[in-house]
Every structure is written in structure tokens, then in C-alpha cells.
Amino acid sequence: SNANVLLSDDASVNSKPELEIYANDVKCSHGSTTGQLDEDAVFYLRARGLSEKSARSLITQAFITEVVDKVEQKEVRDFIQNKLVELHDWTN
What we know:
The protein is mostly helical and 92 residues long. It is built from three helices and two strands, in the order E-E-H-H-H. It has two domains: 1-36, no CATH class; 51-92. It has helices spanning 39-47, 52-68, 74-88; strands at residues 2-5, 32-35. It starts with a strand and ends with a helix. The model has no long low-confidence stretch (mean pLDDT 79).
């Protein structure tokens, strides 16, 4: 499955979902989703005291962290995480 989040009104994405089928697999599927941040999740976090900006930042960080965690090379993963902390004032 392939997921994308558009973080601004003028953002765009070219999604290319791929299939991995192994010899013993008898079925497979693929998909792609693209959208804005989940407004219900933003509301939930705001109801618990986070500001609008903090709620959106936390959701974005969670989405990006899920992607970065899939990077197999530790050095590359650490480099990306450090850049994100530097650029967005996020903590590891």
C-alpha cells in the first residue's frame, strides 16, 4: 500500500504503488491513498489541549516517522531523522 499526505493547497504527488508477489502467495493487492491531514485526529488532539499548529505537527511527524522507520540502513535513517529534527524542531 502507498500513502501520501498533502500538506498545502498547492502540493501534489505522483503515486506509484507496486506489488511484491512471492512464490507461495496465492493472492495479492495494492492500493494508494492521498489526502490532507485527518481533521478528526486534529480535533481529537486539540480537545486534549494541543494547539492547532502542535496537533498538525504531531500528526505530520507520526506520518513521516512511519516512512523513515522503514529505511533499512541505520546511518541513512539517522541522517534523515536528524535533518527532520533540525528543520522542524522535532525531537527524536
